[in-house]
TrEMBL record:
<protein>
    <submittedName>
        <fullName>Adhesion G protein-coupled receptor E2-like</fullName>
    </submittedName>
</protein>
<keyword id="KW-0325">Glycoprotein</keyword>
<keyword id="KW-0472">Membrane</keyword>
<dbReference type="Pfam" id="PF07645">
    <property type="entry name" value="EGF_CA"/>
</dbReference>
<dbReference type="InterPro" id="IPR018097">
    <property type="entry name" value="EGF_Ca-bd_CS"/>
</dbReference>
<keyword id="KW-0245">EGF-like domain</keyword>
<keyword id="KW-1003">Cell membrane</keyword>
<dbReference type="InterPro" id="IPR001881">
    <property type="entry name" value="EGF-like_Ca-bd_dom"/>
</dbReference>
<feature type="signal peptide">
    <location>
        <begin position="1"/>
        <end position="24"/>
    </location>
</feature>
<feature type="domain" description="EGF-like">
    <location>
        <begin position="69"/>
        <end position="108"/>
    </location>
</feature>
<dbReference type="GO" id="GO:0004930">
    <property type="term" value="F:G protein-coupled receptor activity"/>
</dbReference>
<dbReference type="InterPro" id="IPR049883">
    <property type="entry name" value="NOTCH1_EGF-like"/>
</dbReference>
<keyword id="KW-1133">Transmembrane helix</keyword>
<dbReference type="InterPro" id="IPR003056">
    <property type="entry name" value="GPCR_2_ADGRE2_ADGRE5"/>
</dbReference>
<keyword id="KW-1015">Disulfide bond</keyword>
<keyword id="KW-0677">Repeat</keyword>
<dbReference type="GO" id="GO:0005886">
    <property type="term" value="C:plasma membrane"/>
</dbReference>
Length: 292
């Protein structure tokens, strides 16, 4: 008996469920088909999900409509994330993030709008992350940071100062080669002195080296010796070499100076007009050396 009743159950359930199924079928027939990212609004219309819109508006009547993501960030935009931030559209929504080099006071990553904007500069130098190479000091800047060579160091070849990847090495006195093919004892003596200065160079003593060098050039121009006997073209060659060489060296050595602008006295000879070496007009480079 018990078993017989139980066996009837599935049949009964079938009978009970049939009308329900038919009703469900009927109901979905009477509502319209609503596309992705939308839901039934009423018997004849669909409504796009929040953050989506169709070409005929949020609520639309049947037809080949699609609900597309609204780019809340695109102008004309109702969303304002505030300063030092970016608006990021997402599927069906958006969020605000701080610009690179900035972060929210709370440390959170995203925020909703301007009223929640607490984007502030990240001090990369004290953040503890590996930042600047140890041959440099880290300088925080608004939105970023830079690395500057320690005193007496200069950027390694391929690197520049004040970059995030600056890497430095001991600074050296730049090479200054004599003009080729000039036969002058006076000039040879000058370059021997330059070699001495070069050999003895210490970044910490750059100021003194610079003064000595300028003095050597002064003396050479004041007492040109056998240079005066050179043909004009060779004199030009020497004069150009002196000015270009001096400028190069000063420019480099000035980087070893702690701060301020390198100023030096254009006494006597370095005033080009005062030397007979410059009696003919030469294209003189301007000695304009500064150090930030
Ligand atoms: C459904 O909503 C739309 C938009 O509000 C309206 O125009 C339409 O008459 C409504 N249809 C029904 C059957 O209520
Ligand atoms: C949705 O689209 C309609 C028709 O293009 C437009 O008038 C309406 O402003 C849009 N709504 C939003 C929130 O973008
Ligand atoms: C250092 O960074 C600059 C700028 O990002 C890049 O152009 C340069 O190639 C880098 N230098 C080296 C040696 O990696
Ligand atoms: C002078 O300094 C610059 C910048 O530090 C460097 O690139 C250049 O190689 C130096 N010149 C010489 C001759 O060392
Ligand atoms: C470098 O500059 C600072 C501040 O500008 C100043 O106090 C200091 O005396 C300067 N040092 C030298 C060696 O000029
Ligand atoms: C520059 O020369 C003038 C006049 O010869 C002198 O009074 C001044 O002290 C000199 N300045 C420096 C920095 O040597
Ligand atoms: C020196 O150089 C700087 C930067 O290159 C320039 O702005 C300035 O005008 C120059 N000064 C002179 C007197 O040429």
């Amino acid at each position: 008996m018990r078993n017989g009743h139980l066996m009837l159950l599935p049949g009964l359930l079938m009978l009970l469920l049939l009308p329900l199924g038919a009703a469900a079928q009927k109901s979905s027939d009477s509502t319209r088909y609503c596309p992705a990212n939308s839901a039934v609004f009423n018997d004849t219309s669909c409504r796009c999900s929040p953050g989506f819109n169709s070409s005929s508006g949020e609520i639309f009547y049947s037809g080949p409509e699609r609900c597309e993501d609204i780019n809340e960030c695109a102008p004309p935009s109702l969303v304002s994330c505030g300063k030092f931030s970016n608006c990021q559209n997402t599927e069906g929504s958006y969020h605000c993030t701080c610009s690179p080099g900035y972060e929210l006071a709370s440390g959170a990553r995203v925020f909703r709008d301007e009223s929640e904007n607490t984007c502030q500069d990240v001090d990369e130098c004290s953040s503890g992350q590996p930042t600047c190479h140890k041959s440099t000091i880290c300088i925080n800047t608004v939105g970023s940071y830079k690395c500057r060579c320690l005193w007496g160091l200069e950027p390694k070849p391929g690197f520049q100062n004040n970059q995030p990847n600056t890497t430095c090495e001991e600074m050296s006195f730049p090479t200054w080669t004599p003009p080729p093919g000039i036969n002058s004892q006076r000039l040879s003596r000058f370059f021997e002195r330059v070699q001495d200065l070069r050999r003895d160079f210490k970044p910490a003593l750059a100021q003194g080296t610079i003064q000595d060098l300028i003095q050597e050039v002064d003396e050479l121009l004041e007492t040109p010796g056998d240079l005066e006997a050179l043909p004009c073209s060779e004199q030009h060659c020497v004069a150009t070499n002196l000015l270009v060489g001096l400028e190069d060296v000063l420019r480099n050595l000035s980087q070893a100076l702690p701060n301020g602008t390198l100023t030096f006295n254009e006494s006597a000879g370095t005033d080009p007009a005062a030397s007979s070496l410059f009696s003919e007009s030469v294209d003189l480079p301007i000695l304009n050396i500064s150090y930030q």
